[in-house]
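Example record

Each entry pairs one chain with its bound ligand, biotin.
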Amino acid sequence: MREGPSLPSFFRVLSFCELDSTNEEARRRASAGAAEGTLIWAMTQSGGRGRRGRYWISPPGNLYFSIILRPERPIGLAAQLGFAASLAVGEAAAPMLPPSARVSYKWPNDVLIDGRKTSGILLESQTAGEGRLDWLVVGIGVNIASYPELADYAATSLAAAGATVTIEAVLEAVAGRFLFWYERWRADGFAPLRAAWLSRAGGVGEQIRVRLHAEETIGLFAGLDEEGALLLEGAGGKVRRIGAGDVFPATG
Ligand code: BTN
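Structure tokens for the complex follow.
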């Protein structure tokens, strides 16, 4: 274990040279009773996990961490904190980049720089019965020094986009902004997060392609509903609400 950086007192940082996955470690500790605000940080992951069962390549030089939360809210609202994490990464990254770089969000939780994926977020949760959350793990990966060649989406890193930053500085900035949005969500609900996310979302009002579990569908990206689901307007103006999937430009 190594010394952690300086973060708000809400966080208790546990840092590791290598883990299988910071989400896995956070899950283990959450199940064993670890407190809200426990933050698991690793320099590299041997089994980093992405959304929908994918692998998250995790060489040294990038940021990998997971936060344990215990909000007293219904489990159905947990996914909204993925938007808090996207906002945190976007707002931390934007001032580190050259003014010409454009930070945008891709549903549900990706952060893009000039249209290329720079960060991924993985939420995992456990119920306490009666639909209430016992714990939620928010896992955040940010490409800082390097990025993988992704099979289905172009990627980049903060360094490739022109930022000269340390991992510690990115962790401090992202954790600070995450705490801001987490507190805002607890005080005021999802509406302010939704508005902030939409103000930087790519492709609103444009045609997008959405890959679902067993099909792909094309439509107009009509925004988010009050819970964070994607609204896709099909032919004839019928709006479909999508809770899980991957978004791509309609062409390409
Ligand atoms: C995605 O598929 O876009 C989500 C990727 C999430 C990666 C992060 S890295 C830190 C945390 N630990 C993991 O194993 N995954 C998340």
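The pocket of biotin is lined by residues 21-23, 45, 48-51, 54, 56, 64-66, 120-122, 139-141 (CB under 6 Å).
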